[in-house]
Design brief:
alpha+beta; three-stranded mixed sheet; three-stranded antiparallel sheet; 32% strand; elongated
């Protein structure tokens, strides 16, 4: 369950930001977690609650945005939506796709006080 270590990294980022931006409490964290990131969102929610207990983010609301998977199709020369890595292009059937969205894991927004 690597989600616990991811949550510890997220808490580390929150602590660093609290020092640099001078806030003492995190009220809400919004994460963007792509379907191809290899992260189980329910495990991430559980890990976030456990890791933030007693910290500046204790009780913070965790919102998770899951963007669609997008890829650049070389033959079509445009961005298309796919469901999984190695899916064919829905328009031309080509497998010459470069994933452009869906692998991300990042802090998108913070609400602090």
């Amino acid at each position: 369950m690597h989600e616990m270590s991811l949550c510890e990294s997220i808490l580390g980022i929150l602590k660093d930001q609290a020092v640099s931006q001078q806030f003492s409490k995190v009220d809400r964290v919004c994460l963007e977690v792509g379907p191809l990131s290899g992260v189980e969102t329910e495990a991430l929610r559980f890990g976030f609650d456990v890791v933030t207990r007693g910290s500046l983010a204790d009780g913070a609301r965790l919102d998770i945005i899951e963007p669609q998977v997008a890829a650049w199709c070389l033959p079509c020369e445009k961005t298309v939506s796919i469901n999984e890595r190695f899916d064919p292009c829905p328009e031309c059937g080509s497998h010459q796709l470069q994933v452009t969205s869906g692998e991300e894991l990042r802090i998108k927004e913070l609400e602090v006080s």
